[in-house]
Specification:
131 residues; Nucleotidyltransferase, domain 5; elongated
Amino acid sequence: MKLSGRNKIKPEFNMSSMTDVVFLLLIFFMIASTLAKQLNTIEVKLPQAEGKSENRNTVAVTIRTSNRFYIDEQAVSKRNLENRLIGQMKSLSSPSVILRADKKVPLDDVVYVMNIANRNGIKIVLAVDSQ
C-alpha cells in the first residue's frame, strides 16, 4: 500500500546569495593582488632563497645596479639615505626595512644600508625571489 504525503518537503537552495558571495570574493582578491604588486614597482633582479615572508610597517629600500638608492620609489642619494630613512621610520609603530638589492650590486652598498638599520635599531629583511 502506497502512502502519499501531502506535506512533502522539497529542499530548494537559492543561488542568488551564493553568486553575491563569489563576486565579493573575486573583487577582494583582485584588489588585494594589485596592492601586493605596489612594492615591486622598481625592476631589480633579486637573488633566490627559501623562507617565509611577513608584512608589517615596512619601508622598501631598493638598490639598483647603477648605484642608485630608492626609498619607496623615491630616488635618494647615498649621503641623504640615512636621514630620509629615519624620517620615514618615525611614523611607524614597529619599523622594518625591506632591502631590495639587485644581485649585481656591490656588497658594500648592501652592508651600508644594513649598518644604517643596525645603528638605528630598525629590523631589516633582505628581499629575494623564491626558488
